[in-house]
Amino acid sequence: MILRSKAILERPEWSSIRSLYKSMGYTDEDLDQPLIGIANSWNQVVPGHYNLRQVSEYVQQGIRQAGGTPVEFGLIAACDGIANGHEGMHYILPTRDLIANDVEMMIEAHRLDAVVLLGSCDKIVPGMLMAAARLDIPSIMVVGGPMAGGCEFDERASDVTSLTEGLGMLKDGKIDEKTFLKLEDRAGPTCGSCSFLGTANTMCCLAEALGLCLPGSATIPAYDAHRLRVAQESGRQIVELVKQEITARQIINQKGIENAIRVNTAIGGSTNAALHMPAIGYEADCEVTMDLFEELSRSTPYIARMNPAAAPNVPDFHNAGGVPAVMKETLDLLHRDAMTVTGKTVAENIANAEILDRNIIRTMGDPWSGEGGLAVLRGNLAPNTAITKPAAIVPEMHKFTGKARCFHSEEEANQAILDGKVQEGEAVVIRYEGPKGGPGMREMYKAMKLIYGKGLALKTALVTDGRFSGTNNGCFVGHISPEAAEGGPLAIVEDGDLITIDIPNRELHLQVSDKEIKARLSKWQRPEPKFKRGYLALYSRLAESADKGAIIRHKIE
Asked: Are the C-beta atoms of residues 137 and 93 closer than 8 Å to each other?
């Protein structure tokens, strides 16, 4: 067992460092043991992280039980929900890279021997996984768990996004203010990551599928005592990983990443996985392309269905067998010999898993769909790629042609929808919202929810170089690359142009001649940057396109 920390704790040369630890109450016995970093993103802003202070206590118990010394430090974590629909959303995706950098800096500056990653939500989990792959030290992920579903609304358990759907209904007189205010009070009844299969719970599930969480742990509800028992077990297991010298890249490798993508498509996970898995792959020196997503999606049945595609929420999915049941059912498609944080293979971990509710998780022989939840589209409107989620789109909307209604920002589109200016049969275009143009690639969650609340979900479509929340449904295409701000064809779409979305054939086309597209692009001028100082100004210059995972390249090849 090789301990990095011991190189800077030997007496007498490094007694000054021992003294710094001792100033905080650490003992010689503590400093003789492996120093296990706990990267805790707890705060009182994000519901998905509100319980992580208590979760951390149990992780620390487990570390001490196994003969390690916990060393906790804090990280930023921003809430997509609170930042949604306004300027705050510009900052959300860019936090992913800051989180990865912060974990790297803290671990390397202090030469810690291993790290336990505590997070739950949209950009925090992938940022932590990126850091684990970059550092390649013993690592384990512990998530906070999903919240419970809320009061019944629109024939299912509500969640916090139901308020935006409800707003459209309220504006159209379909519900009254009393019903709306009741929903505000009861849609989020506990802390935890939002109860639907949005990006937060998707990435927690993928962390487990990747092998970096203990089996079955990703979907344990935040309010369940088992969440704390697993935290303690994870604390013990990280010390075991140090002893066995099992490091992150033995788990986060091509096999593990492909397993995670398979699970994402089998459960109809968030389109944002198409941003985060390439970024994690970049850190792990693995090739993760949109072609890989398409190949795995085409060949993986969609077997687990939950909100937003159906009424059950993530706690229901957990009770139905969760990720282990899905992996057991799809084992023939997975790399069964992939290593995990248990020190065992995927096949060994899930040997006893079973499907407990076939109304949520179906078998390979009777899937919800023969193909997976995500689809990669190409065409003259998306020369590189675009991403959609057929799992959240009713089959009759898998082919759609509509007249373009163009907007240069999310706010402009949202106001038009609320004002009733978006009509049946239109394809809403929201551009200049990509990684560079946004900047920060805001999600068009609110626009989609307002369209739903207005009763237009089955009568309109939305296409954007921005992204979507995992809770969206309707007909939508995002991640259009190249983005408008880089001179992609989305920039020159005009009101009234016909746009065709053809998911079965994986096509996205602007019904305008190549000659006309070229002529319009020759007249196009790059817009002024929206942010000229601060981190977003830097991010807009450095971020790659969406089809590359919006990564910030830092390797010297």
From this structure: no
Residue 171 near residue 418, CB atoms below 8 Å? yes
What pLDDT, in 10s, does the model give residues 239-277?
999 999 999 999 999 999 999 999 999 999 999 999 999
CA distances to 52, 242, 268 from 66, in Å: 21, 11, 38
Per DSSP, 444 falls in state: -
The reported pLDDT for the residue numbered 392 is 84
Q: For residues 139 and 132, is the Cβ–Cβ distance under 8 A?
A: yes
Contact indicator for 127, 51 with CB cutoff of 8 Å: no
* Mean pLDDT of all residues in 498-513: 97
Angle between helices 226-244 and 52-65 (to 10 degrees): 40
Residues 139, 193, 469, 540: which is the catalytic one? 469
pLDDT averaged over the chain? Answer: 95
pLDDT tens digit sequence for 171-190: 889 999 999 999 999 999 99
Give yes or no for a cis peptide into 308 (omega within 30° of 0): yes
> Is the CB of residue 506 less than 8 Å from the CB of residue 298?
no
Does 4-15+24-149+190-349 match 376-548 in CATH topology? no
**Count of residues for the chain?**
557
- Residue pLDDT, tens place only, 417-426: 999 999 999 9
Quick check: 119 and 49 in contact, CB under 8 A? yes
Give the 3-state secondary structure of residue 16: helix
Q: What residues pair up with 404 in beta bridges, in sequence order?
A: 427
Q: Which residue has the higher pLDDT, 9 or 394?
A: 9
Pick the CATH number of 376-548 from 3.40.366.10, 2.20.25.90, 3.50.30.80, 3.40.50.300: 3.50.30.80
Reported CATH class of domain 4-15+24-149+190-349: alpha beta
Q: How many other C-beta atoms lie within 10 A of the C-beta of residue 529?
A: 15
Per-residue pLDDT for 85 more than 90? Answer: no
| CA triple 386-389-393, angle to 5 deg | 125
Q: What is the pLDDT of residue 2?
A: 82
**What is residue 345's DSSP assignment?**
B
Provide the b/e sequence for 328-360 (b: ≥16 CB within 10 Å): bbbbebbbbebbbbbeebbeebbeebebeeeeb
Per-residue pLDDT at 470 exceeds 70: no
User: Domain limits of the chain?
Assistant: 4-15+24-149+190-349, 376-548
Coil vs helix vs strand at 509:
strand
Please state the φ and ψ torsions of residue 492, each to the nearest 5 degrees. Answer: -110, 10
Cα–Cα dist 471/463, whole Å = 16
* Catalytic status, residue 19: no
- DSSP letter assigned to residue 396: G
Q: Contact, 375 vs 506, CB < 8 A?
A: yes
